[in-house]
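<given_protein>
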Amino acid sequence: MCCRYSVLPGSEKAKAIVTMLDKLYPDTPYKTGEIFPGDTAPGVIERGGRILPVPAAFGFPGHRGKDLLLNARSETAATKPTFAESLRERRIVLPADGFFEWSHSGKKTKYFFTVNAVETIYLCGLYKIVDGQVRFVILTRPANETMIKTHDRMPVIVEDSAVRSYLTDRDAAMEIIASAAPLLQRREAV
């Protein structure tokens, strides 16, 4: 499912996150552009009552130590030992301008999905600290009508106005996760 997304710091919101990240973590490298599993990218968490950007690595270590877990199903995360505590206590959002998915019917085609007229979207995720590093997975949900032709799952996306609630309020986060997914725009990616 959602294994790659894009962070381009062109919008004012994305620029502000990247600027603050550079100030708080001047010696920690992170990536923008197309984000792959294992990459360290900008994330936003709640810490001590403040909403702060952090460098975060994409993927929880798998059970065998080599594999990375990249996604958590929003419908079952609360009951899975790997994700339940993070869903209760450690939620993260990943600023993005969109995400990638591949159509597997016929010729395999890479598509880029965005939310119409929104420069920066926020993918909902969960995080944990592994060996002193913030690591995240992206929450997914069943695809809506604009995604279903390409894939049966999509990331949970939170509106800018609800980011703080998602990060700080467990009940609000559960409502956000269960709310309707936004309509998406799809274009073929290079």
